[in-house]
Design goal:
With about 80 residues, the chain is mainly α. The protein is built from three helices and no strands. Helix 1 runs antiparallel to helix 2 and helix 2 packs across helix 3.
């Protein structure tokens, strides 16, 4: 599969991971603990809505190549999930 180089070698959705870290940084910059709700909700939305939807679409379109890519690459956080 073409997208399995660079950051995509370690995480299937590095852009989503970057968004979570971006909002987490904004939350820490405010110094208010309630601001952590935003990156938390963002992560939950990515994990339970966006990633499953996108993965289903990619599996349907690139069946064998995507299965091989999915088996060797973590979905969001390299080394964890």
């Amino acid at each position: 599969m073409r997208g399995s180089s660079g950051f995509f070698r370690y995480s299937m959705h590095p852009n989503y991971l970057g968004d979570v870290f971006l909002f987490l940084g904004f939350a820490f910059a405010t110094g208010d603990w309630i601001s952590l709700v935003i990156p938390g909700l963002t992560a939950v939305t990515f994990v339970f809505v966006h990633i499953p939807t996108l993965d289903a679409c990619l599996a349907k379109r690139y069946w064998e190549a995507f299965s091989a890519y999915r088996s060797r690459t973590k979905r969001l956080v390299p080394g964890l999930w």
